[in-house]
Amino acid sequence: MADYKLTIGLEVHAELNIKTKMFCNSANHPDEKRPNTNVCPVCMGYPGTLPVINKEAVRSILRLGVAVEGELADFAEFDRKNYFYPDIPKGYQISQYKNPLVKGGTLNGVQLTRIHLEEDAAKSTHLSPAPLLAQGEGKGGEVSLLDFNRAGVPLMELVTEPVMHTADEAMKFAKELQLLLQYLDISGANMELGQMRVEANISVAPLGHAVSKWTELGTKVEVKNINSFRTVGKAIEYEYKRQTELLEKSEKVVQETRGWNEDTQETFSQRLKESAHDYRYFPEPDLPKLFINEVPDLARTVLAESLPELPWHKRQRLLKLGISAEHAEIYVTDMEKGSLFEATAALLGHAVSKLVVLASNYITTDLKKLVPAESLAEVIGMVDRGEISSRGAKDILKIIQDDGGNPKEIAREKNLIQESDREVLKKVVDEVLNENPEAPIQFLIGQAMKKSENKANPKILSELFEQVKN
Questions:
Q1: Which of 175-199 are b and which e, b meaning 16 or more Cβ less than 10 Å from the residue's Cβ?
Q2: What is the pTM of this model?
Q3: Interaxial angle between packed helices 229-248 and 167-183, expressed in degrees from 0 to 180 and rounded to the nearest 10
Q4: Which of 233, 268, 303 is the last residue of a domain?
Q5: Span 434-462, pLDDT tens digits
Q6: How many CB atoms lie within 10 A of CB 2?
């Protein structure tokens, strides 16, 4: 069997979470359950209506472009992408082709081709058998229902270069993009809710082929509308296996669009893949050209000032506090836990220290529910001062999670305060030594803890036994 090279490029769509649709003032409410509620003549494609560009949507894409260090357009325009499906009421989709808002850039080490804006399609629901109201004279069958609430929703499309070569690399890229969209508050990017949709362009070619263009990489197959990161990986791995088996039999890989069947864990053919000329792109005559550099609040410097701390910058900063890469990743992806850690670290001095690391260990291991940063910092301080044991700290945190309360008061009420008075502990040490003069130190500490009913500070006990033994 020959060796083959897998090459992957991704196309990712994400619904923008701004108030109104892309070209009209209908509400952009993706959670609306009542069909055909947030609609108007523009997004329904009525003849004679005129679209108007949503400036906030343009600003969102340009901010994303700044974050990935892409080239922002001085000139951009919208185009008509002509094709007919029932969920595209006008018979064309308003998108961008030759002049997108952003070109180039990199994310997670992956080169980007472009980022542009377009309008989303309506939502189709296919029912079989058809409901009675659609059966006419009583004959059943299938029927498709259209909900135009989603039609015209602002949609980002990001296209990568074909530079990824493993399913894992593609999944990591998609996850990092999701994080970035959430950090920028551009999109909820929840794949399960359809807010972010991934399409994978996959090709397989024998090793030794040039790797600069798709045409030299083998035949490109697109797997559309993947709705989870896990499925991204499975679809790519399945396609690699399918295409490799075809090539091994000297059969041709067809350029086509395929879907993913969750039940069979396989891709399936949907239609032959269209090329750009099939869509008959031409500039949208009802929308003005965009001269971005003439709009002061869309200047790159202004947009850059609006950016929050980006995920990769946050990782680097957290690692400098001495925590593990695993913990840093938890705080980057789980913003609530991240906020608790940072607030606790600030109360502890926000510098590299064993206390900051201890805080991270408690948050990632012991806390099933979040607690106030002040309470966590106080518990850690009590451990550091020898007032409570590590076991006592966990008991206190469990009580705070369940019932709330003040750490010091809980420690007193539950009899968790450690005895750290050296004079008091010296008497216990002497007693244990008299009873076990030849025993090893660890055994002696255990006996002393029993005598003190587990209230003695084991660190101080160890020091006292060491002094006597030496």
A1: bbbbbbbbbbebbbbebeeebbbbb
A2: 0.87
A3: 150
A4: 303
A5: 888 888 888 988 888 888 877 888 888 88
A6: 9
